[in-house]
Amino acid sequence: MTLPSPARLLCAALLSFGLVGSAVPAVANDAVPAAPPSTAPASPATVATQQPLEPATLPTTAPVAPVPAGTVPATGKSTGAAEPSTVQPSEVALVPSPAAKTPAQNEVTSFVPDLNWNPLDDPESNARYGEHFAQPITPLKTASPLGLDDEGGSAAIAPRSGTFKVTLVTVQLSGKTVADTDAINMTAARNSITSANGYWNSASAGRLSITKVNELRHKSAAKITDSYGTIMATVTKELNWQYRSYESLVIFVPHADLNYNGSWGILGGGFTDSATSGRVIMPYPSALTNNVVTHEFGHVLGLHHANSLYCGNARQDVPRAGSSWADSSCYSAEYSDTTDLMGYAQVSSPAINAFMWEYGGFGRGDEIRNLGTPTASQSLTLRPWAGGSSGRAAKFTDPASGETYYLELRAPVGYDTATAVGGNRGVKITKKDVLGWSGNASIVLTPNSLRSGWGNTTLTWQQGQTFTTHAGTRIRIDSVTNDAASVSILLANRPAIGSYDALSASRNVDTAFVRVQGWAADPNQPSASTEAHAYVTGPDGVKRGYVINATRSRPDVNAAMSLGGNHGFVGDIAVNRSGRYEVCMFAIGGVNTELGCKQIQVSNAEQPIGALDDVTVVQSSGRVNLNVRGWTMDPARSSSSTPVHVYVTAPNGVRTGYAFTANKNRADVNSALAVTGLHGFQDDISIDAPGRYTVCAYAIGLNFNTALPCRTLQIGAALPIGSLDEVRVEKTATTATLRVRGWTMERENAQASIPVHIYVTDPSGRKVGTAYLADKTRNDVNSVLDVSGSHGFEQVISAPRAGTYTVCAYGIAVSPFSRENPLLGCTTVRTGVAEAPKGSLDAVRVDSTSSGAVIEARGWAVDRDMAPQSTTVHTYITYPNGSRKGFVYPTGVLRSDVNSYLGISGQHGYVTRTPVTQRGSYQVCTYGIGTSPYSTGNSLLGCISLRY
Ligand SMILES: [Zn+2]
């Protein structure tokens, strides 16, 4: 409810009278001042005293007799009692009112709880722990100077430092006896101050203390049937207690509980008079007193209640709508966060939540990490909130709604030991409640908003659960232990945004293109550049996609859309066909957004085409050339020959251009393209070094130049390798040859068979060179060198002279830039000796047998060049009649003596037997017959005469 209460009016009146603004008193934080509706504004006389008293109870006139308590029903609990509009000065309190003696009043004062009494556990008690009354949930409040209502997520109260001096007063209310008052356990009362001091001293990192400096006993005109706010106001007035910085008033009254408008069960009340002053009213001490007094000092320090969200539709979170929730099925269940000191916290005093912590300016200031407005999903670690780590909690501002959320790990540590158990151990999520007019109330957002109040024992989020803000941002609980929780903030995917500003057509030297311009951004990552995608449908009807990076500066867009970074795009998309183009653009993000389509007409878009078919190395007259071959055709003038520019990048990096014209016949091209004219080119470009060459050709068209795919080739500087394996002398009776065998090749050019040059120097010193091709199969060589091809040579070379021959072989490089033709080897061989056969006719005789006579000749003969080969002997016989005949015989008889003498082997002796019949004188001559090709003739071995 936002009705301006009388208290508010009165407060305004006081301000208008010039009281110190920062000391606006008696703004009852949550305790509803039981202001009489008819009370007039404070009189000037009151103002003159400059005593900032409880405005709701300022007496404006002479004391008026209290309203008879007889209006209170006998039960005293069921209906609202009439509020006394004014109170007597304290001095007159001894005069008992008639009501004080009614049985009803005696009944409500009859019970003195002991310190173990927990009214929450007492079925007879109607306890509403604390000062808060269950209904209405939004009691009347007044604006507080402590903070602005719309200020969320930032400290409203600067860090305070000081010691609250407490005046502790026991009050004998009208109608109560001395014995009633004596029943107030002062030890418990004092302990509660100590307890509150311990809690807030810890929460303020030692800056705040609360200490009792004075203890009074006071007899008041107020009655227990007065609403608790009225009692507080009456006593304040009677004591003439005034607001002063770092002072507070704590009163205990002799009754088990307090009431508001006749509803009982209230266990305490707190009033803030500024950020550094306030008052507390308490009933008889009980088991709850330490906690309640600590709670009430939370009010004194400016905090409102820790509430929880209830939604009849089970929503986890709702947006604000002015000063209420946007969803009428939801309300703030005041005071029902049972894990917070400022909620329904029972005996223990759990930690106030991070929102309250920050609001009140507590701690060192480093406990809550401010994640700001996340621009990307992220993970973070929380440490126990009731522990001592810096950065143990976090807050972030939802990028979609701007609301600030607080994330804490509630683990059984420190002040949370008793409460952070079961479903209350986990990640607690809170935000500012709409309830607090000063922005000083929190609301806990729980996994089940259908439960609220003290019936909800599951206020925290567990591992695996995900909380979703009303704007769609998700908080995923990744893990929870007593020491740490891991949480991921997952931003909702918002559609990409952008604008497709323009489509135009243009051209450069290479191509025609369509240009798209605009901007694109992903609001999920508002400072990061994203992409735009273009889909181009050309005259051929084919749709093609292109990625265009939106990385250009567009300050206008950033300013208008509250973006950082660069989001503009200008994309050129080459086209090579004239006609109509449609280009559709998309902004790319978590969700892509179509930015629209545009159309444009493109003319004269066709580019020359062609190919660099091959580049080969050719050598002519000592020069090495690159022969470049290809074709090109310009659709803009398809029957004309087109210039071609060829750029050769030499191994030293120097690039040289050559201009040719594609004016050679290429029937294949004409046929394939259905054009006429001359479109081929084939030209030589001289080069002078080995190495890697890159050759690129450009078709020079009427409108564009087209780069044809380049070619590279490696031109080696080869050094042949090889071997002259063998030079063997081979002779027959008529021929003598040298068999020359070996291999040679270029490693860099192993496929090719290369020449071998063989130089033969004969015994006379004459040298003859002959070129051959090493193209014979040599599997052994290929195997060892792991190459293919044929690299062997084996030549038979005539060796007509006896003597020493020298044979040398050279591998002949074929690569254009070979370094040299290496010597593969030289071999010297002796072919033989040139002489006539040697031998002897040792003896001749006639051997007569029964069958006839035989002339037998013995001796030896050898052609030494052919030894150990046997030779031939011719035997000539001159008969008695003078005729002469020759006969041919082989040698074949071992003559060790001859072998030994000549140092040879073989069988070189002979025995020839020639039949004869005539008697008379004979002459026998033998000749050794030369068998070597080098033989100088036949030799007469000897002649011997004899008679038969
Ligand atoms: Zn309270």
Automatic annotation (TrEMBL):
SUPFAM superfamilies: Metalloproteases ('zincins'), catalytic domain (SSF55486). Keywords: Signal. Residues 56-76 have a biased composition (Low complexity). InterPro entries: MetalloPept_cat_dom_sf (IPR024079). It comes from the Bacteria. GO terms for molecular function: metallopeptidase activity. Residues 56-90 are annotated as: Disordered. Residues 1-28 form the signal peptide. This is Peptidase M11 gametolysin domain-containing protein. It comes from Arthrobacter bussei.
